[in-house]
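Notes on consecutive records. When two proteins share a document, each keeps its own sequence and its own token line. Never mix them. Below: protein one.
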Amino acid sequence: MAQMSEDTLAAASAILKSIATNNNFDSTQSGSRLNLPGPTTSAKRQLEAELSALVSRVQRLEQKANVINHQTLPITPSELGAPSGFADVLTGGQKKQNTSKHPSPNPSNNSREALNDERPQKLAKTCSDETLPEAAFEKVLDQAALIQKGKHEYEALKQKCVEIQREQAQKNREELERVETLERELKKHQQANEAFQKALREIGEIVTAVAKGDLSKKVLIHAKELDPEISKFKMVINTMMDQLQIFSSEVSRVAREVGTEGILGGQAQIVGVDGTWKELTNNVNVMAQNLTDQVREIASVTTAVAHGDLTQKIERPAQGEILQLQQTINTMVDQLRKFASEVTRVARDVGTEGILGGQAEIEGVKGMWNTLTVNVNAMANNLTTQVRDIAMVTTAVAKGDLTQKVQAECKGEIKQLKETINSMVDQLQQFAREVTKIAREVGTEGRLGGQATVHNVEGTWRDLTENVNGMAMNLTNQVREIAKVTTAVAKGDLTKKIGIPVQGEIASLKDTINTMVDRLGTFAFEVSKVAREVGTDGTLGGQARVENVEGKWKDLTENVNTMASNLTSQVRGISTVTQAIANGDMSQKIEVEAAGEILILKETINNMVDRLSIFSNEVQRVARDVGVDGKMGGQADVAGIGGRWKEITTDVNTMAMNLTAQVRAFGDITNAATDGDFTKLITVEASGEMDELKRKINQMVFNLRDSIQRNTAAREAAEFANRTKSEFLANMSHEIRTPIA
């Protein structure tokens, strides 16, 4: 049961007392429910709800009664037109009570009982009035019943309020006991607070000194403290001061060594720190370690580069401008963050993220913290200048510009790095000039045998120089060997091969050229054999046997074999025809397929066969006519011939014509001599035996004529002449037959 105060109970009693007083209370204007004083609890809210409901019911009853007759139905038995007590309760007012000299212990209850006693009498008197209608009378009776019911509810509510009062009294006693306990605890804690306040004042002085950079003060620890927590707290503060002193000196030392003196590898050694101090110490140590590792790795890598060792790389992670430096050299250390935040931020920016140029900005710091800030900023500024100068030079080297060198002032390992990079640039310049010279001579000008001369190089640079020279020398030897073999091949010497040891694609080229030489040798031998057999020895039908050839060589071999086969067929066809011609057979012709000049030769031979056939037929005809049939004057008619065949034809025709002229001249002379005319002589041109015959006939005619002239008168001369004539005719016949035969 929730606690109920006396004010709450009094207010509830006042509300119950004022029920049905007809004060024209409007619940819609005063609010939907009553508000009792005291703490808000569930029981209180329930009581307020019940009271509000009771007030509403009573008001409705009073309003119904007023509707019947406002004058005859008073609100209360005691007075007419008295203001309702509900408005005072709900609006916070108080209803005046008539107090007697000796008030009742419970005045509200007494007045309520009086009202209840008077109300039935007045109600009966009113109801007995003749002016009251019967229906109104019934309504009044109903209202009276409702009022009686409200009375019973009031009694129950009153009993409930008494129980609440008892519970509230019990809870008040318990609350009083708790208050006394709290007072004792409060006094105890006040004493502890005074001790803590004193300790806090001392600690405040220490914290103020720390904020000003003074780390020399400590908290005084008494032999006996009021609270053990105070001793523990003071010891923690003093331990913190010791750690801060160690931290500041260690951080300043590391920053001075790394940032100013260029001594890398230092670490802040602070034992027993936790939280932000441990994080700050770790950050400073990580910064120094990162910077040491990065710079030493840069020095190691750049030294290796200067010595020609290109197998090493900077593996430390980095970002920003340090990432750009890592791409040329790798990264450097973050700046120290701002003390607690700035020193760590600066350290993170410079050592990890590679953001150069940052400064720790800590306003109002003094003492050791100011010294630490100055040292961190000096370290960051020096590193920024040095690394950017190195980055500029290495970036220029990466872009092929070997004219720049590191000019920044450096100390310690940074100075060694500077000298290493500058030495690397000089060696790279010399190496680039020599390699460019070799590349230009070998690759562009075609001058073999050149060598790169680079002094004072070691490691990979020396190996690279030797490799370039070895490459140039090997390339020179290989190209010259290949040129020698290919020149020999071009000159027809297939006995030479590439014998120099080579590897890779050059070895493939060597094998290809040597294989080419072997195949060319085989091909040349076979082609020469076929050419010799066909062209020199006259042995037809030979074929070139070249194994494992492909491409053009295979096509060439097949073409040679096709040529030899075609030539064999064609020559054998020509040979058959010419052999037939030699045997006097003019009926055969060349039927083999041919092209080009062989086709022309084929057509020429076939034409020759045709013309020889015509020529032989014509000559045979002339010879038969002249020599056998004795038909003089015939001519060989062979059309479309020239050269020797034309000359032979002309000679045959000339021979036939001459023979015809000579024989006819001989016949004329003999006919004239037969007729006794010896005045004519043979004048036709003749040579050889025909000329001798001509001379003999002419001499014979001359002799006969002379003889006839001397013996003209004598018979003997006539007889002699007859006999001579007979002899002459016989001789002439004999002479004529002899040359023709």
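Protein two starts on the next line and is unrelated to protein one.
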Amino acid sequence: MTQVFSEFSQFARFGLPEFEDKSQARVSPLHTDKMVPVTMNGAAEKKEKVPKESQDTYVVKVDIPDTPDTGFSWVKLWKFTGPGFLMSIAYLDPGNIESDLQSGAVARFQLIWVLLTAHILGLLLQRLAARLGVVSGKHMAEIAHSYYPRIPRLMLWVMVEVAIIASDMQEVIGTAISLYLLSDGYIPLYAGVLITICDTFTFLFLERYGVRKFEAFFAFLITVMGVTFGYEFVESKPHVGALFTGMVVPWCKGCGTEQFLQGVSIVGAVIMPHNLYLHSALVKSRLVDRTREGKVREANKYYFIESFFALFCSFWINVLVVAVFAQGFYGKTNADVRENCFTLDNHMPDFYKIVFENNTLPADVDIYHAGVFLGCTFGVGALYVWAVGILAAGQSSTMTGTYAGQFAMEGFVQIKLPQWKRILLTRSLAMGPTLLVTVFSGGINHITGLNDFLNCVQMVQLPFAIFPILTFVSDERFYYCLVAMSIMRRWSWMPEPQYQDFDAPWLEKKPENSLDQYGSFDNTVVPENAAEADDLSIHKTAL
């Protein structure tokens, strides 16, 4: 109990972890030709260098042109474009889409400013995650494995997995609903879940054809979402003036508890904890020369520009959804929508016309009922267009969720498995609960409240991602380039920005207790002449 309490005390104050094995060999971080394992008794022995490819998240990386950084370059921006758009998929998953339509239905345009604020906060956090990955060469889960003691580390991993499972349930169920709509009910929910498992395997193996082609596929899915939801926006003809007023005026006139809870749900849907771990790993797909300060700064600059444009696009796609249902769903009852289904010439199948009950209660609002509403109001084509957009959102976010689970497992518990085994394991963790929900939910009409619950779960898990990343980028033992606003540093108690790198020759001095290139804390005294390291006895000081 004393040991457990000690570990939790260290975790609470973000202190240094004590190594479980004091005799574990350490590696001299500045010896680039040969690795010198150092033991507590001071003896040094030669050891072959571990191939870098075996340590990297990506074996094949996108090459960046080695040209002088004379300013902004469209060519370099194109080379760095990709990770930010994969990251932005989490801002467009079915959970976000359902939160958007519920926001429009209960508060009309008055909560768009909350959506904008959530995207701005998300951009700041994603910026930190990307910079951590670029400058350290490791993603958050790998750093957490070396930074925290065993019990807090495993707790973090469990929390991340819970967030991934909650997000995955939204994504898979959203995909299953879209297949149900596209097939006019011939594909039940549980069958849609099983189909999603299979096609996720198929699409994830597209990475074998290259990172750029894989990223292009995600860009295509984002384009599909933009086109389909844009079509619904044009059909619904929302009030543009009210839309922009709700975006810039941080006020909700006449709002009560329901609207407040919806605002909280928006934040929980937009800022996902596992997305920080994902983004810090995705930026490793570019071949950045981390031994040169200018190249690190250049990568950070272009990654931020790319992330800004990616989240800018995702924000407007979310706004399109809010606007459609703010215009058409706000203030409507079930009876109002049901009347449209029977009176308008919409060519809807008969079984869709009785989805909404004939009562005066507020209209049911979820992805399924939203599709039926669009079909009844604008014609059956609008229903199928909506289903295609949800299918693109669900499929893309399911794949990125699988990646997040893979990176978390590899980093936190250091499990190295072939790709198909990693996919099978991470998918199994999420598919079990999802299948149970779809089988025992009582049908597609009885899963309306599930999205709100899952958004709350992710909201609860958010501190388990925010605290670690703020800790990592503010710890002087970690090298980083954090050109953040001073107000951001004050909010998160960050020191002044600086570079601290264990393997960068452009450093003036190496701080004590820094991370070595294998992610371990090391106080090893390294000789100035690394070529003489084999003949020297290097003594490790106690932490």
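For the record: The chain has two domains: 24-55+473-543, 77-461.
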